[in-house]
Amino acid sequence: MLVNKRTPLSPADYQPELVAVSTSADRDGEAVRPEVDAALTELSAAMRADIGEGTHVFSSYRSYARQTELYNSYVAQYGQAEADTTSARPGHSEHQTGLSVDLMGTSGQCRLDTCFGDTAAGRWVAEHGWEHGFIVRYPDGLEGVTGYEYEPWHLRFVGVEVSTAMHQQGARTYEEFLGAGSAPDYR
Ligand SMILES: [Zn+2]
């Protein structure tokens, strides 16, 4: 399931099957598809075994209505051009698929900040996320392909088969792997 600035959700108000995120600091607040929660639990345990801290999800599924509120608040604050570099327009957010999460290490360093990529937790998810079916969806310097600035905290579940193939091929983005073409903007 590809979702980006040139490939909206269909239907726009698409809603996945959801369960509460087990590895969230706020269990009532976060939800993902069941297979994503299972993979996140494994990822967090493997990370804890390696570096002594697990992961906390702080953002996950967002409904079309919630994305509308969020995007509109960014536009009001920063203007549309700036908002479009960081927040998806309603119906274009990967968070609406139930397959994407924003996370941090349980130590809480660099929440929602690009410095997360330089923390032990950020380096671990970038290096090992694929072993559990996840990719860092918006890598550094590839805004022209993905349409978004570097977000080391935003992981997308693609399943172990796809993440392994991407790792083996050295594909840096989902767009590149699918041969889907770049999605730098809304056209
Ligand atoms: Zn995100």
TrEMBL record:
<dbReference type="InterPro" id="IPR052179">
    <property type="entry name" value="DD-CPase-like"/>
</dbReference>
<dbReference type="GO" id="GO:0006508">
    <property type="term" value="P:proteolysis"/>
</dbReference>
<protein>
    <recommendedName>
        <fullName>D-alanyl-D-alanine carboxypeptidase-like core domain-containing protein</fullName>
    </recommendedName>
</protein>
<dbReference type="InterPro" id="IPR009045">
    <property type="entry name" value="Zn_M74/Hedgehog-like"/>
</dbReference>
<dbReference type="InterPro" id="IPR058193">
    <property type="entry name" value="VanY/YodJ_core_dom"/>
</dbReference>
<dbReference type="GO" id="GO:0008233">
    <property type="term" value="F:peptidase activity"/>
</dbReference>
<feature type="domain" description="D-alanyl-D-alanine carboxypeptidase-like core">
    <location>
        <begin position="31"/>
        <end position="159"/>
    </location>
</feature>
<dbReference type="InterPro" id="IPR003709">
    <property type="entry name" value="VanY-like_core_dom"/>
</dbReference>
<dbReference type="Pfam" id="PF02557">
    <property type="entry name" value="VanY"/>
</dbReference>
